[in-house]
Design brief:
By secondary structure, the protein is of the alpha/beta class. About 35% of the residues lie in helices and about 25% in strands. The chain has a six-stranded mixed β-sheet with strand order 6-7-8-3-9-10, with helices on both faces. A four-stranded antiparallel β-sheet has the order 2-1-4-5. The chain binds adenosine-5'-triphosphate. Adenosine-5'-triphosphate binds next to strand 2 and helix 1.
Length: about 240
């Protein structure tokens, strides 16, 4: 079953077309690598899927719910890490996660356990009593991922989750994302191509608001006029060259 369905999705900002007639779907348990150069329309697509902005045309469904017509039901299916995690600097990690859990209306009974579960999963238990403002960028990012995982939503949308992390932190976050496969449906937007090679089976490459490629990672090179042995980087550069 497709957990995310996007049909003929278009977004215009005044006279600028940010995304143009996108159609794709993500099956349950799949991790889709969402790639594209700066300004390709990745964040715009994710903002529509998560109900932050409305589309100009087309339909987006999450868990079968149209995000424009049934925004609350659609949002209940989604955990979202935006490009800049919405953290409150003066809160502790644990306090912040409890706060988000309450905002998500998780049942008060299991709330504490759920906070500890996502904290452990993202490796922030040992900093749980620290103030967010005093955490390193890598730990802030982990807390951002932890809040997205609260309540175990079936769909997780991650906008550049490893941006600004050091190589070790990146590897840890990558392993964490990989571990979500099968249990969650994930859209992973990133500029870091090896990240996609290591975590995703399917890839969508956006260029200037349009789909330049949408295929299994294994098949991508052979179908884009590049050698079958071509790396994702070579395919990406070929498809997005001006
Ligand atoms: N609020 C806005 N008003 C006007 N134009 C916008 C707005 N938001 C985005 N755009 C434009 O829409 C296009 C797509 O932007 P978007 O942020 O979705 O790209 P992106 O692929 O996420 O880029 P990046 O990798 O740099 O984050 C760009 O040309 C951008 O300038």
């Amino acid at each position: 079953m497709a957990m995310i369905e996007v049909q003929h999705l278009t977004k215009r900002y005044r006279d600028r077309v940010a995304i143009d007639n996108l159609t794709f779907s993500v099956e349950e348990g799949e991790i889709l690598g969402f790639l594209g150069p700066n300004g390709a329309g990745k964040s715009t697509t994710m903002k529509i899927l998560t109900g932050f902005i409305p589309p100009s045309e087309g339909v987006a469904r999450v868990g079968g719910f149209d995000v424009s017509q049934h925004p609350l039901e659609a949002k209940r299916h989604i955990g979202y890490l935006p490009e800049t995690p919405p953290l409150y600097p003066e809160m502790t990690v644990r306090g912040y996660l409890r706060f988000v859990a309450a905002l998500k209306r998780l049942p008060p009974r299991g709330l504490r356990d759920e906070v500890e579960r996502v904290a452990a999963l993202t490796g922030v238990t040992h900093v749980a009593e620290r103030l967010l403002q005093n955490l390193s960028k890598g730990y802030k990012q982990r807390v951002g991922i932890a809040q997205a995982l609260l309540g175990s939503p079936p769909v997780i949308i991650l906008d550049e989750p490893t941006e600004g992390l050091d190589p070790t932190q990146r590897a840890e976050v990558r392993a964490l994302i990989k571990g979500l496969a099968g249990k969650h449906t994930v859209i992973l937007s990133t500029h870091i191509l090896p990240e996609v090679t290591m975590t995703c089976e399917k890839v969508l490459i956006l260029n200037q608001g349009r789909i330049a490629a949408y295929d299994d990672l294994r098949k991508l090179a052979g179908t884009q006029g590049t050698a079958e042995s071509a790396s994702l980087e070579e395919v990406f550069i070929k498809l997005t060259a001006a």
